[in-house]
Design goal:
It is built from 17 helices and 7 strands. It is an alpha+beta fold and 420 residues long. This is Nuclear envelope integral membrane protein 2.
């Protein structure tokens, strides 16, 4: 490393022979680089080999599990010969050293570039935040269940097969070991495939489409056979898994690890404080409504509402009056002695209308459309004696009702008062 070239931003180096290069971290943290990407590009017209130097960083001294996994992959994975290589540098991690070994003495170019706003990082960060907040809803969605099953079958076929054959594995410890190995193999396969995807798509497009369609269809059939999750415990486990994946996306979506940890802590606190904040908000509304002076709001009724309310309340009051008159507490003889028309009162108690047909007709003739009262108000031609005549005719009709009904009611009232 002492004889290596120290790379800096905006450096462009051309050499025809093999050499060692290192990017040394300055350790200065700047928030404007939170979503920036630092890349080292190696280009040549002939084939060369890129070899990372792992002696500078020991995997046992890795700070996080993600750094350990990345270190192991870099040791195991050795790039094949190519004409172009792109190296993504962790700006706040350890120093990065590598060698370039050209097969021919042809100049190759090593350049250091910085992208201030990397769309991939922003996409990962936003996806992680949304995935955490909607994890519970997604774990209960049938569409997400089938989509995730197809994606898992295509990208992690070994994991999908192991989950399908879980019931044939008796011991949980054996299943855990196999699951760990399948996940490590799948992640290693995805890591190796991402750099060769363009080449595979251009040369083996038909085979890739056949693989995606076949494996995707088989995965959908298996998921459809088992059906979406219905057990609450399984749904809870899936929710926790999605939230853990969301934390991983947030961590890889930010270049500064301290910022990623702070965002994860804030999300966890906001998730845990939703219930206390809701309680405080509820108590605040109750206190505000208690001390706030309530203003009376009067709402006027329309003519139709006034008529309907009057009819409803009238029928209700008449039924209450009938019930009271039929009760033992009602003094029937005293009421009969004070009434001018006892038989009409008796008919009312037995269920007859409180207004006779003659009274209805007289009211319509007097106050209805074309009635004498309306004509008198409009033209002042109706004499006052006519109104008196109509009123006396209504009273005479009341005295001409059936006498048998009156006698029967009086007998019933007498018997009730006798038993009291």
């Amino acid at each position: 490393i002492a004889l290596s070239h120290h790379l800096k931003e905006m450096d462009v180096i051309q050499k025809p022979v093999a050499d060692c290069y290192c990017y040394m971290q300055n350790g200065t943290m700047n928030l404007k680089y939170i979503w920036s990407a630092l890349q080292v590009k190696i280009n040549s017209t002939e084939m060369f080999k890129y070899v990372p130097i792992s002696a500078e960083s020991n995997c046992h001294n890795s700070e996080t599990i993600f750094a350990f996994f990345k270190c192991v992959v870099q040791i195991v994975w050795q790039s094949e010969a190519s004409k172009e290589t792109v190296i993504n540098i962790n700006q706040y991690g350890e120093n990065v050293c590598f060698t370039v070994q050209p097969y021919k003495k042809v100049p190759y170019t090593v350049s250091v570039q910085r992208n201030m706003v990397d769309r991939k990082l922003i996409l990962l960060f936003v996806a992680g935040v949304f995935l955490f907040h909607f994890a519970n809803a997604l774990s209960r969605s049938a569409v997400f269940y089938y989509s995730a099953g197809v994606a898992l079958g295509v990208l992690a076929t070994l994991v999908f097969l192991l989950l399908t054959l879980k019931r044939f594995i008796p011991k949980h410890s054996t299943f855990g070991i196999l699951m760990s190995g399948c996940w490590m193999s799948s992640l290693y396969f995805i890591y190796c495939l991402q750099g060769e995807m363009k080449w595979l798509w251009s040369d083996y497009r038909n085979y890739l489409l056949g693989y995606f369609l076949t494996v995707g269809f088989i995965s959908f059939v298996v998921c459809y056979k088992h059906g979406p999750l219905t057990n609450e415990r399984s749904i809870t486990l899936l929710t926790w898994t999605l939230q853990l994946i969301a934390f991983v996306l947030i961590y890889f979506g930010v270049t500064i690890p301290q910022v990623a940890y702070a965002v994860i802590a804030i999300i966890l606190c906001s998730k845990g404080l939703c219930y206390p904040l809701g309680m405080v908000s509820f108590v605040g509304r109750k206190v505000k409504n208690f001390f706030k002076s309530k203003k009376l709001v009067f709402q006027l009724l329309t003519e139709e509402e006034f008529r309907e309310q009057g009819e409803t309340e009238t029928v209700k009051a008449l039924e209450e009056l009938r019930s009271f008159c039929r009760s033992p507490d009602f003094s029937s003889w005293l009421a009969v002695s004070k009434l001018e028309s006892p038989k009409k009162f008796a008919n009312f108690i037995l269920g007859s209308p409180h207004v006779s047909p003659a009274e209805v007709n007289a009211y319509d003739e007097l106050y209805g459309i074309g009635g004498s009262f309306l004509e008198q108000q409009l033209f002042s031609i109706e004499p006052e004696s006519e109104q008196n005549r109509l009123a006396s005719s209504i009273q005479e009709d009341d005295y001409e009702d059936d006498d048998e009904i009156s006698k029967r009611t009086l007998k019933q009232t007498f018997k009730a008062s006798k038993y009291r």
